[in-house]
Amino acid sequence: MNQKYLIPLTTVFLLFLIAYTGVQGAGLQVFFGIVFPYLAVIAFLGGFVYKVFGWASSAVPFRIPTTCGQQKSLPWIKQNCIDNPDTPGKVFLRMLLEIFLFRSLFRNTKAAFNRNESNKLAYSWEIFLWLGALAFHYSLLVVILRHLRFFTAPVPACLTWLEYFDGIIQLGLPGIFISGIVLLAATLFLLARRIFDTKVSYISQAADYFPLFLIIAIATSGIFMRYFTKVDVIGIKTFTMGLVTFSPVIPQGVGGLFYAHIFMVSVLFIYFPLSKLMHMGGVMLSPTRNMANNTRAKRHVNPWNYDVKTHTYEEYEDHFRDKMIEAGLPVDKKE
Amino acid sequence: MSKELTPDEALDKINFTPKSGNWMDTTPSVQIKPGMYCYAAKADSVKTLGLPNARPWNPLEEDWKLPENWQEILHQGIKERLEKFRTFKIFMDVCVRCGACADKCHFFLGTGDPKNMPVLRAELLRSVYRNDFTTAGKILSKIPGGSRLGGGRPLTMEVLKELWYYFFQCTECRRCSVFCPYGIDTAEITIMARELFNLVGLNIDWIATPVSNCFKTGNHLGIQPHAFKDMLDFFVEDIEEITGVDCTPEYQKKGADILFITPSGDVFADPGTYTCQGYLMLFKYLKDKYGLDVTWSTYASEGGNFGFFTSHETMKRLNAKMYAEAKRLGVKWILGGECGHMWRVIHQYMDTMNGPADFLEVPVNPITGTVFENARSTKMVHITEFTADLIKHNKLELDKSRNSNRVITYHDSCNTSRGMGLLDEPRYVINNVCDNFYEMPSNTIREQTFCCGSGSGLNAGENMELRMAGALPRANAVKYVHEKFGVNTLGTVCAIDRAALSTLCEYWVPEVEVYGIHELVGNALILPGEIKRTQDLRMEPLPGMEEE
Question: B42 phi and psi, to 5 degrees?
Answer without folding.
Answer: -70, 140
